[in-house]
Each structure stands twice: as C-alpha cells, then as structure tokens.
Write a structure and sequence with these properties.
CATH architecture of the largest domain: Alpha-Beta Complex
Structural class: alpha/beta
Distance between the termini: 24 Å
Number of helices: 12
Strand content: 15-25%
Order of helices and strands: HEHHEEEEEEHHEHEHEHEHEEHEHHE
Helix content: 25-40%
C-alpha cells in the first residue's frame, strides 16, 4: 500500500490547474483459459491511483528500483468487487453468478520467495490496475471499467452480508491483517497507529481483534480521528497540535509504545516513531515512499525492531473476509463518498482535495 499524499513537486500544479478525465469505450474482454470475467460492482480509489493519475509510478520504484511511466493501456483500480459472468474454461462454470472480492496480484510461483510461501515478496508479480510488466494484453486489467478479466483463483467468494461497496476494502484489510501479523501483538501491548486513513483504521480494528489492550490513533485531521474513536480507538492524538514523540510518551507515562504502525512513512514520522518505542518495541512501516533518511543508531537500541509490510499473503485475504463478515472489522464508517464511474473526474477531484471534502475512502460504481 502506498502513502496517500501528493509529492511536493506536483502539489502546486494540481491545486491550481483544472484537469479532465474522459472515459474510453473498449471491447468487453474475453477471459483466458485460466480466468473468469468479472462484472465490476464497485472499485475503491487508492492513494496509489491518485499518484498514477498525476504521472508517478510508485509500483515500478518498489519492484524495479527505477521509475517507469505507467503504460498508456492501463486501466486503474485494484480495490475491486463484482459478479462472475463468464469463464475461460468449462472447469469454472460453477463460478458464474458468484459474488467475489478480488485478490489483486499474482506471483510467479517459482522464484526463491514463492517456493518458500512468501509470494507477497515475489519480484516477478503481476498486479491488477497497475504494474508495467504486463506484456501480452491490449489493456492491463483494472476495476475502473464495467468488466474486468481476473485469474480464476483470485476471485474470492464473499457472503451476501458483505456489500460490494464494503468488499472493495478487502484488499486493504488483507494488508492490515498481514501488517498486524508481522507485529506479533500480545494481549498486554499498547499500539499506536499513525495515519487514520482507510489502512490505518483497518489496522486499528485488526489489532484490537488480535488482542491489543490499548490502541492510540494519530492523525492531523479531525474527521478521521472521529471515525477512529467510533471504530474502537481508546484515545486519539491530533499531531497538528503536538509532536508525535512527546504525545506518545505522555500517553504511556514515559514508557513508550509496544507496537507502532506507520502508514505515513515520512522522515519525521519514522524517526519520531523509533524514539517513541518501548524497549523491544516494533515499528511496522505500512507505506512506500522514495525516501532517504538519517537514523541515530541509538534509536535502534533496546531490541527495537523495524519491519516493512508488502502485499498480503493470499490466505490473509480469507482472514479479511471472515473479519468483515463477522463484524469484528467495520469499513462503512470511513466510506465517505460514492460516485458513478462516469463521475470519475469528480471523484478524483474529491480525492485530490480530500481535506476540503473530509474524504477518507471514495468508491466508484459502474
């Protein structure tokens, strides 16, 4: 998952200049032998989609170490849910009519990491809605469309009690499940979540489900912090008014935080979070940013651990479905805006000016 901020070099141009988005008519795709065809019901706008739209390609930086332009034949959108309406092989005919969420990536299955069950770390991965390594497609599949081809084994059934709008958040919820799993949370742990966007709000709830005894939400906006309290945060900190380090130390009587999830990942948040950890504390970085930072090695003392989360493991998507279906995790409170697909220009305007519109999660529906 990617940091939902717009790079400084783009901000002035974005805020001052109007933009136009026009939808394009393309043929309905035919599913290949290992695919099904999804009639898209809903698709979320991720922070990475905003960055792609503005000309940045964070995925290539992550996988290739260089920035490549996003291919012109890319259909954006990876937070997808829908209905299976066609299949590429008779073997999958029983899937027709199934309500599904989308596991949005496919690993190679044969590299060093895949063979060890770490397919989320695969370096030869294809990803719905972005990634420049698709080579044999007229259009790279994505959810900002009426129909989308999808690998049959990445169409995950969802129960009727999960709406299609809610199901768009399963992709991020699976990432939250993975991040919380990396943190090895204990029942006595105090947890802080930096950034009360969709991912942070889901991490908050998963951490609670996994046994954290106290959870602190940290943000610079009042609306997300209100939602965080509704979703179970024991306390909230508005760091537009106070520093991260001083605030977290005050909250814990000077001991520090056992687990911090940083969904912002700026130089300031990373360095302040490290200092804010209790001994044997864990800092989980849940964002991607091209950033060189200076660290004081003393901030790593006391057996503090830094770890970084990538894509989720496939089975964690099933955990996400179960958490959402059971009500242990709620996503409706932070779905703030829903637009039709033909209103995509308006939807991106709201996403880019999210503070002005108090937007947290925006959904598109064909």
């Amino acid at each position: 998952m990617y940091k939902y901020t717009i790079p400084d070099r783009m901000k002035a141009a974005i805020l001052e200049a109007p933009f136009t988005i026009k939808l394009k008519s393309i043929p309905t795709p035919k599913p290949r032998i290992d695919e099904v065809l999804l009639k898209v019901a809903a698709c979320g706008i991720c922070g990475s989609d905003v960055r792609y739209f503005m000309g940045e390609n964070p995925w290539s930086l992550h996988t290739l170490g260089i920035e490549e332009p996003i291919p012109q034949n890319t259909i954006l959108g990876h937070e997808v849910s829908g209905l299976v309406v066609d299949v590429g092989s008779p073997e999958f005919e029983d899937m027709i009519g199934s309500r599904v969420g989308v596991i949005a990536f496919k690993s190679c299955g044969r590299c060093y990491y895949c063979l060890r069950g770490l397919h989320n770390l695969c370096g030869d991965m294809l990803h719905i809605g972005h990634d420049g390594r698709w080579r044999d497609r007229e259009y790279i599949p994505g959810g900002y469309a009426e129909y989308m081809p999808l690998w049959w084994d990445k169409a995950h059934p969802i129960p009727d009690r999960i709406s299609f709008e809610e199901a768009t958040q399963l992709d991020g919820l699976a990432v939250a499940v993975h991040a919380v799993g990396r943190a090895d949370i204990k029942p006595s742990d105090t947890v802080a979540v930096l950034g009360a966007g969709p991912i942070g709000l889901m991490i908050l709830q998963v951490a609670r489900a996994m046994g954290a005894c106290r959870i602190i939400a940290v943000d610079v906006r009042s609306k997300p912090l209100e939602v965080a309290r509704d979703l179970g945060a024991d306390s909230t900190i508005d760091v537009s008014r106070a520093g991260i380090y001083d605030s977290l130390l005050k909250e814990t009587g000077g001991i520090g935080i056992d687990v911090i999830f940083d969904t912002v990942c700026s130089e300031s948040t990373i360095t302040q979070c490290l200092k804010s950890l209790a001994r044997r504390g864990r800092l989980i970085l849940v964002a991607l940013n091209r950033l060189d930072i200076k660290l004081n090695l003393l901030d790593l003392s006391g057996e503090r651990i830094i770890t970084s989360s990538s894509n989720n493991l496939y089975h964690e998507y099933t955990v996400a479905v179960n958490l959402l279906s059971s009500g242990r995790v709620r996503v409706k409170p932070f779905i703030t805006h829903i637009f039709r697909l033909d209103e995509v220009e308006k939807a991106f305007h709201v996403a880019i000016h999210k503070d002005e519109y108090e937007a947290i999660k925006i959904i598109l529906k064909p």
